[in-house]
Structures are given as C-alpha cells and as structure tokens.
Amino acid sequence: MASMASLLIRISALLIAFLAVCCPASLAAPPLGKRYRVGGPEGWRVPPPVDKEMFYVKWASPITFFVEDSIEFVYKNDTVIKVSKAGYYHCNETVGVGTGPVPKDGSTLFLLDAPGFAYFASADLGHCADGQRLMINVLAAEPPAPASSLAPAQAPTVAPSPPQPSASSFPPGPGPAPSMEYSSAAGTSFLPSFACAVLSAAVMVLAGFV
C-alpha cells in the first residue's frame, strides 16, 4: 500500500513537470487602447463664453479616436452623460449613460466600443447650451504602422583577384576543422520537445505499474 502511494506521488510530480514544460506559461494580453482626459488638465467644465462653440471641438480635433480607446471626464459640481445626436445639438437630454442629473465631484470613464460618432454633454441643460458638450468620431481600428520602404542594397563591387599559384606547387595541408556552431532558435525549439517526450514516456511507464 505504501509503495502504491509513493508511485502515485511520483506520477503526480511528473505530470506537474510535464505541464510546466509543455504548456505555455501565460497568454499575451491584448493591447489596450489610449486614454484621453477630456478638456486637458482643467477637465470637464463650462468653456469660456467667447469660445463656447469651439472649445471642445478644438480639444478633439488633433486626436484620432479608435475603438478600444477611452475618454475620461473629470469634473467638480457637474455631470456628464452620453446623449443622442439630437441631444447634442438641441441640449434637451438629462438622462443617459453617465453620472445622471445630480451634480457632484468625480470622474467618469467611457470606453469607445463602437465605430461612428459619439456624443456627450452635461446633464445641466444650461451648461450644455453654454458649450459643455463633446462630439467625437471613433474609427473602427488603428491602422498598422507603415512598413519602412528601404531600397534594395546594391551588391558590393568585387575587385578581380590576382592569379593564384598552382595547387601542385604546395604540399597538401590538413582540411578545415568541422564547424561546431548551431542555431540557437533550433536549440530552443528542440529542448522543450525532447523534454516533453521524455516526461511523457516516464508518465506512461510509471502508470503501467499502477
């Protein structure tokens, strides 16, 4: 009975080693989008009267928004909600996704999870009418980085070699030593496979004694 328990412990240890060698340690996390603070350092607020129509347009215009990006509204004694297109242009919505109609201090983060135009405004209709509203265009996906266009390298000009003396005038010498170099990539791919095979065989052998 004791030998059977010892054998089961050995098989369990080999299985753990097998999984550690043959299975990937972790999965790569998908890249996260960028995060923007609406309005810059001063945050979400009623813009100056002289610039109320263009204040948030100017803030958003240099930025290209993509799906998976996020925008953060930081405010004091205010609110923010996601509104419809009509709610953005007419400032007539007080209910939407966001903080709601009750003013407070805090911050709200919106994930841009769909392409197209997205509209945001203060739930205070007076603030919205004074320019505290934002419209952005969200693109479907960030384009890949352009490949570098490098001109093909020109072959170096080789000068003609001088005539060599006849091989018969020299005594035969020893041949070149055999190379002992190997590819590190091949070595790294071989070792885990070999370890998996050895561990698999050991598990099968020990399992046969159970």
Plain-language structure description:
This protein has 210 residues and is an alpha/beta fold. It has a domain at 35-139: Cupredoxins -  blue copper proteins (Immunoglobulin-like, Sandwich), CATH 2.60.40. It contains five helices and eight strands; from the N terminus they run H-E-H-E-E-E-H-E-E-E-H-E-H. The chain has helices spanning 2-22, 55-60, 85-90, 125-129, 184-207; strands at 35-37, 65-66, 70-78, 81-83, 97-98, 104-111, 116-121, 133-139. The chain has a five-stranded mixed sheet. Strands 1-3-6 form a three-stranded mixed sheet, with no helix packed on it. The chain is globular and about 85 Å long. The chain starts with a helix and ends with a helix. The model is unreliable at 18-30 and 165-192 (pLDDT under 50).
Layout of SSEs?
Blueprint: H1 2-22, E1 35-37, H2 55-60, E2 65-66, E3 70-78, E4 81-83, H3 85-90, E5 97-98, E6 104-111, E7 116-121, H4 125-129, E8 133-139, H5 184-207
Parallel strand pairs: 1-3, 2-8
Antiparallel strand pairs: 3-6, 4-5, 4-7, 7-8
Helix pairs in contact: 1-5
Largest sheet report: 5 strands, mixed
Strand order of the largest sheet: 2-8-7-4-5
Rg over C-alpha atoms, rounded to the nearest angstrom: 34 Å
The coarse overall form would be globular
Keywords:
single chain, 210 residues, Immunoglobulin-like, five-stranded mixed sheet, three-stranded mixed sheet, 30% helix
In short:
By secondary structure, this protein is an alpha/beta fold. It is built from 5 helices and 8 strands; from the N terminus they run H-E-H-E-E-E-H-E-E-E-H-E-H. It has a domain of 105 residues: Immunoglobulin-like, CATH 2.60.40.420.
